[in-house]
Specification:
Blueprint (H helix, E strand, L loop, with lengths): L1 E3 L13 E5 L7 H17 L3 E7 L2 H5 L10 H10 L4 E6 L2 H4 L3 H9 L4 E7 L12 H11 L2 E5 L3 E2 L2 E2 L2 H9 L3 H8 L3 E8 L4 H6 L4 E5 L8 E9 L2 E10 L10 E6 L10 E11 L7 H20 L5
Parallel strand pairs: 1-4, 2-3, 2-5, 3-4, 5-6
Antiparallel strand pairs: 7-8, 9-10, 9-14, 10-13, 11-12, 11-14, 12-13
Bound molecules: riboflavin and magnesium ion.
The site of magnesium ion has 6 residues, from strand 9.
Length: 311
């Protein structure tokens, strides 16, 4: 997959036309996957490159000043789009100027120069100033600029639409197990291993890797069975998301204890795949009590993870 920040460099690649979708695709969940699979198919049928136009930062950050925590940071979103065999992704800077474009202007500036022949959009797609642009307007513009428009219906799971909002809520409630069927993978966060309080090794004899996260969306505080991924290898592990109330810390930390592992991984990048939540984080009356509990957590996590070979 090729990634561009600017549509102007794309001239030769779209000489014969292109198939396009536009959206945030936060989470790249099953609904998005269905849409992107449709895009890939149409590209193949028409012999044209498939193009995803996405935005950075999130449009709501610019329009409303804030937006919900992102499920998939840009770097992960690009990885997932690549896995889905998108040919080209254009990461468009979303700024005030962009936000002020009418739906028609947006199409004229971004879609027409890419010689779109087919546009695929989600069931609830809106675009342009005040969200005036929708499927019907796209179809009208398609007559003028010679592209077809296709709308992809949502995916349902247990009677409800699979959406980024639903996924965010579940993660924030700690229901990571319920998120997997919506994402088609475990919810994951990514970060660099940094120095923590250095209590884990010395005080408890349970070394943990402290993460400096890239992600904004962190599961509810608590203890989780996870897979820790380091240089493309996955290790069963247990994670604590929280404030370590036993020690009265004030900042949220994400710590991972990898089983039977004693390498120094400071500075390495670690990806955490959340499998299931084990319990709430608690304030213990002493180190011995905390340690007994953590040893139990480790046992429980090992049980949860032992039959899960494939992610
Ligand atoms: N700290 C707490 O104050 N309360 C907890 O319930 C708690 N649970 C933990 C569970 C696991 C599996 C791990 C690895 C750590 C936990 N911690 C908890 C964090 C512990 O205080 C921390 O690892 C040390 O302070 C070292 O930073
Ligand atoms: Mg994430």
């Amino acid at each position: 997959m090729e990634v561009y920040r600017d549509i102007r460099v794309l001239k030769e690649k779209v000489e014969k036309g292109s198939v396009i979708t536009i959206g945030n695709f936060d989470g790249v969940h099953l609904g998005h996957k269905k849409l992107l699979e449709t895009l890939r198919q149409r590209g193949k049928e028409l012999g044209l490159p498939s193009i995803v136009i996405t935005f950075d930062p999130h449009p709501l950050k610019v329009i409303a000043g804030k937006c919900p925590p992102v499920i998939t940071p840009l770097i992960q979103k690009l990885e997932l789009l690549e896995e889905l065999e998108v040919d080209i992704t254009i990461v468009t800077k979303f700024d005030k100027k962009m936000a002020s474009l009418s739906a028609e202007e947006f199409i004229k500036i971004y879609i027409v120069p890419l010689k779109a022949r087919h546009i695929v959009v989600g069931y609830d797609y809106r675009f342009g100033k005040n969200r005036k642009g929708d499927f019907n307007l796209l179809k009208e513009l398609g007559k003028e600029f010679d592209f077809k428009v296709e709308q992809v219906s949502p995916i349902y799971f247990k009677g409800e639409v699979v959406s980024s909002t639903r996924i965010r809520t579940l993660v924030q409630e700690g229901k990571v197990k319920d998120v997997k069927p919506l994402l088609g993978r475990y919810y994951q966060v990514f970060g660099r291993v940094v120095e923590g309080h250095k209590r884990g090794g010395k005080l408890l004899n349970i070394p943990t890797a402290n993460l400096n996260l890239v992600d904004e969306l962190v599961p509810k505080t608590g203890v989780y069975a996870v897979f820790a991924e380091l240089k493309e290898k996955k290790y069963p592990a247990v994670a604590n998301v929280g404030y370590n109330p036993t020690f009265g810390n004030e900042v949220l930390s994400v710590e991972v204890h990898i089983f039977d592992f004693n390498r120094n991984i400071y500075g390495d990048n670690l990806r955490v795949h959340f499998v299931d939540r084990i319990r709430e984080e608690k304030k213990f009356s002493g180190i011995a009590e905390l340690k007994t509990q953590i040893l139990n957590d480790i046992k429980r996590a090992k049980e949860i993870l032992k039959d899960l070979r494939n992610l």
